[in-house]
Structure formats: C-alpha cells, structure tokens
Amino acid sequence: MTFAVKCLDCGHTAPYSPTSINCPRCESQWRDMVYDYDSISRVMTSQLTGRPFDMWRYRELLPVRSPNPALNLGEGGTPLIQAVNLGLMLGCPNIYIKDERQGPTGSFKDRQAAVTIAALKEAGITEMVAASTGNVAIAYSAYAARAGIKLWAFVTSLVPVVKMREIALYGSQVVKVTGSYDQAKQVAAEFARQRNLYLDMGARTLTSIEAMKTIGYEVAEQLTGVLGPTNNQAGKDHPIWRMPDWYIQSVSGGMGPLGVAKSFREMKLMGLIEKLPAVAVIQAEGCAPMVQAWKKGMDKAVPITSPRTHIETLATGDPGRTYTLLYGQVKDSKGTFESVSDEEAFRSMHVLAKMEGVSAEPAAAVAFAGLFKLVRAGVIQTTDVIVVNCTGHTMPAEPFILGDNWARDVVLPSQVRKEETPEEGLLSALSNIAPDRFPRIAVVDDSPEARRLIRRILQSQGNFTIYEAAGGGEALKIINQERPDLIILDLMMPEMDGFSVLDALKSKPETASIPVIVATAKELTGEEKDRLKGQIQALMQKGDFLSDEFLEEVRTLLG
Ligand SMILES: [Zn+2]
Predict the structure, then answer these.
(1) What is the pLDDT of residue 150?
(2) Residue 292: its pLDDT value, please?
(3) Which of 129, 152, 250, 253: CA 20 to 30 A from 550?
(4) How far is ligand 1, taken at its centre, from the CA of residue 369, in Å?
(5) Cα(132) to centroid of ligand 1, in Å?
(6) Which residue ranges in the chain fall short of pLDDT 70?
(7) What is the 7 CA–ligand 1 centroid distance (Å)?
(8) Residue 26 in 3-state DSSP?
(9) How far apart, in whole angstroms, are the C-alpha atoms of residue 81 and residue 74?
C-alpha cells in the first residue's frame, strides 16, 4: 500500500514512520496522511463486499503496512441502531445511533488504540506514554497488553477510580497527576521526552486521526444498507453511498470528529459519496472553548483554565490547533458547534436509557443533549437523517441522574412467624417493593404510536399506572371506572372528539375536577381556544412532549 505524510504547514511529503513526529523540512508536528486515492477508490468499489465487517476492511486507508490479525480484539464494525422512540419524540424519524459502546473496551477509542498499537508493533516499539481522561488509556492498555507493549498512563486524579483500576489491571503503569487534564498531558510529554519514549500526541498522532475515519466509512456502508444508495448518477459504474445529513459527536480534544470529517472528504474525493454531511460538535458548557470561539466566528480557541463540568472526560480546556482544523471542517460541511449543560446531558442519558435501552456514558449523552437542542432550535430539520456517535464506557454518573431510593429492598424474615406460612412471609416482604397505588393517568389518543410515546415518556419520569383509550367513548368509560388523577387528551379523534369528551367530563361532578392536559398536533382557532378556556390545565403541542414545561406540568398536577 502506498501512503505518505504531508506537512500541513509547508506541504513537504515524507515517508511514514510512527517515531518521526516532525516534518523533516520545517519541524512542524501538524501533518496529515495521504494515500493513492485513485487506486484505493477501485478497491472500495470492488473488493469491500467479501471482507468481514470490522475496521480492517478499510485497511488500504490506514497507515499499517500489514495488519496483524493476532493483535485484533474485534475493533470496529459496531452496529448502527435506529432510535425509533427518540425519533417519535422529536418528530425526526431518521435518527441513528452509531453504537461505539460495543467496541472491545466500550469506547470509540478502541479504533485509535488498535491502529496505533498495530503501527507501533510494526515499527518494533516496546514502550509508550499516553495522557488520558480514562477511555484512551483503557483502550491503549488492552491493545498494548495484547501486543506486549508497556504503557505509561498519565491520568488526572479526577479520573474515576474504577477507570484507573481497569487501566492497571491490563498491566499499564498508572501515574496520577493532581491537576488538570492539560497539565497531565504536559507531565506525560516531559516524561516521554526524558526517557525517549513514544508519546501519544492526541490529534497530532497520525494513526489516531486515521483510525477515526473508519467510523465514517462504516456509517456510509451501513446507512446505504438501510436506506439504499443515493440515486445513481448517469456515468457512474458503482452505487453512491448514502450519507447522513448530520453527524453529531461530543468532544473533549476534538480528534474523533476531525478523523470522521476526514473520511467524509476522502469519500467525496474518491467519488463514493456526493455531499459532505454537516458535522455538529458538542461540548459540555463548563468546558466549551470551541463553542465559545465558534460563536464569535473565531478559528482559534481561548483556553479554559479551570473547567467546570462533572463530565471530566470532556474537560480539555485547551484544544489548540485541533480546534482550528475542526473549525475549517465544520464550516465547510455547514455544520455547527454547540454546548449543553451537565444537567441537560444527565437528563438525556436518562431519556436515552429509558426510551431506547441504550446506556451511554455522560460524555456521549452530551451529544444527544446537543441533538435535542439543535432539533428544537430548528438547526436540524425533522426530515434530516442524523447519526449520533454513542460511546459508553462506564462512569459512576448514577448519583447525578438517579438520586436516592432507586432500589427497593426486600428483607426476607429470618424466621417464619408462627401464624404465617413461608409463602405468606415472602408475600409480606414483597409488599414493600411497590406501593398499592401509583398516580393514575389516562392517555386518550386515537393514534397508538402517540399513546405509546406518551406512556414511554411518562414511565421514563417515574412510576404511574397508565390507562389508554383510543377514542372518546372508550375514554369516558375508563375515566368513570378508574377515576385517574390526570388525563392527557387528544383533540382530533374520529367519532367523539376531545371537545366532546371534555364537555361530558365537566357535566358530571365525579369527573369535573380531574385535571386535563390537552395535547394536539393542530393549530387551534380562536373559537376552539375559547372552548378550552377554564376547562383544561394545560395545552401542549405534540412533538413538544419532552419539554420541561410538559413534565413540570404533569408533576405539578399530580402533586
Ligand atoms: Zn513542513
């Protein structure tokens, strides 16, 4: 395979070696891998089909001369999962999750570690140094262990202790640095310099950027599998891969989206796709130097010296030139930078887990919170096809999102009382698990999808007994029988509509005082609004169900 390194500053091209970290002509550390794209485009269109679905199927686009299968841990080839429920909730049917949790150590950093360690092994390197907020060191540790390479992992003392233990378990030497992540990087660099060891340099490590490209290629192939190729243009002898309209990823240093954006450019260059997806880069508000610079139209970020976020894995205060490079990519793709609060991230994490069964780590939840924000702001259109990068290494974030009392205790009696059989003892112990009565909510809507969505959203917020009715007549029957504490009512239903249901409820003293939230997809006329006045507690627009307003309203009405 033919590849070389091109200097981003002077344009000089040199052969690739993992140990040469400067441009031989101008000393710059900012360089980029270049390939013979003409010949690779032929491989991409003719030989991919027969290869296993892992990241090495794009081996011609990676700086490893002969990939060694003995080092592999099953990296890449992660699923692309459609987020059907999030789609219903946001009114965007085409949201896909690139599930990087399913990598060997549970994060997208596995790709970086796999390619870098393969290149180091090929170059005969036996020892390396990396600074990390956790996931990078875990990924490197696993691959380094497999390759027999010794890793010195410099982590800040804020990295959760479970992550540090996992790094140590793989045989890496953990070095705890009391200070910021940027300071940990400086200490690691000095250590590597003194001992003349290979140092991972973040986005300046060529293998890292190259590894991240495989996410983009996989997304292209997977989306094409789901949605079909983009209409073939006359004169093309191969299908044009489908691209999302948006690719969303949360960032700390920014290497991930920088690599993925490079894959998009390569695919365009090789004629494999027609249009670059817009890239949305999301940061935690308490450490968002890139977002601050972007909003001022600046291509250089002002470093943040004391990050204020609980999400330590995203606390790169000084993104340096990576931001400048990313700025160019994001601008070209008509993408954006956005930030979200820790609270928004934790809430998204909860919603994602409860609505989609996907437990992401807070850093990845930042990307989903960004998605919600951009859809609500109208930056992302509801018809857009969206891919969100979801990585999921564990982090003890539960205290932030679950609070206390998330588990219920069952204490089995040690001795069965005389008057009880063993079964009765068990039953009385189990009676502590659930109270006899949860708040009761009737959901009235003729669309089963809408009912299911409201049920899911409510269940994601707490324990409720939920009754569903598909029409006005059925609703009145259930309400008279069950006397719910709250009714969520659709207006437009065939046969008996919401207005008539309201009239019937208000005419009977037993049901007149049950609070009602009307949820409608329709723009109401002045006359219709008058009919509802004084009759209902709140009027909600469908598609706005996840708004704090709606959930606050439900909580208030249920006391
Ligand atoms: Zn140069």
Answers:
(1) 95
(2) 97
(3) 250
(4) 40
(5) 28
(6) 1, 232-236, 393-408, 410-420, 429, 431-436, 542-548
(7) 5
(8) coil
(9) 19
CA of 296 to the centre of ligand 1 (A): 30
Do the bridges between strand 246-250 and strand 386-390 make them parallel or antiparallel, or are there none, so unpaired? parallel
d(CA 506, CA 495): 19
Give the Cβ contact number of residue 235 at 10 Å: 5
Per-residue exposure over 107-121, b if at least 16 CB sit within 10 Å of its own CB, e if not: bbbbbbbbbbbbbbb
3-state secondary structure 362-428: HHHHHHHHHHHHHHHCCCCCCCCCEEEEECCCCCCCHHHHHCCCCCCCCCCCCCCCCCCCHHHHHHH
- Cα dihedral sign for 347, 485, 483, 88? negative
**314-333 as b/e: b if 16+ CB within 10 A:** bbbbbbbbbbbbbbebbeeb
- The Å distance, Cα 205 to ligand 1 centre, comes to 16
Q: From ligand 1's centre to the CA of 25, what distance in Å?
A: 5
Query: How many angstroms separate the alpha carbon of residue 229 from the centre of ligand 1?
Result: 40
Q: Give 14 Cα–ligand 1 centroid separation in angstroms.
A: 10
**Which residues, 6 or more positions from 112, have their beta carbon under 8 angstroms from its beta carbon?**
136, 139, 205, 207, 208, 211, 212, 255
Answer whether 382's CB lies under 8 Å from 92's CB: yes
pLDDT value of residue 315? 84
Mark the residues whose beta carbon lies below 5 A from ion ligand 1: 7, 9-10, 12, 23, 25-26, 28
C-alpha 417/C-alpha 424 separation (Å) is 10
What pairing do the DSSP bridges indicate for beta strands 173-177 and 198-199? unpaired
Tens digit of pLDDT for each residue in 19-61? 899 999 999 999 999 999 999 999 998 899 899 999 999 999 9
The burial class, CB within 10 Å (0-12 / 13-18 / 19+), for 229 is: middle
